[in-house]
Amino acid sequence: MIVDLDRETITVRKRNWYLIGVDEYILAFRYVRRIEIDSHLVGADISIRATGGTAEAKLLTKRDVKRIEEMLITNNSRMRGIVFH
């Protein structure tokens, strides 16, 4: 999961079903509606819901998930547009 603050996008890349190639999902910050974090004993998963779908990243470190969440919320407070639930 790549959070680009300059372009205000979230890019998620993952192996496709056939293990040949990579699927890439790009979400703009303005379409993000919900951030869900599922913490485990070791690591965490993050799910970012947008008006067009969902971007998920699994088995990240808890520190990375927290940084992604803080980046999105900080940018949201500057933009005054998105309301996270």
Helical content stands at: 10-25%
| Total of DSSP H or I helical runs spanning 4+ residues | 1
* Average pLDDT: 86
CATH top level assignment: Mainly Beta
Structure summary, number of beta strands: 6
CA distance, first residue to last residue: 21 Å
Strand order of the largest sheet: 1-2-3
Largest sheet: 3 strands, antiparallel
**Over the alpha carbons, how many angstroms does the gyration radius reach?**
13 Å
Provide the structure class: alpha+beta
Shape: globular
Low-confidence stretches: none
Oligomer: single chain
Q: Quote the CATH topology.
A: PH-domain like
Order of helices and strands: EEEEEEH
Could you say how many structural domains there are in total?
Answer: 1
Percentage of residues in strands: over 45%
CATH architecture: Roll
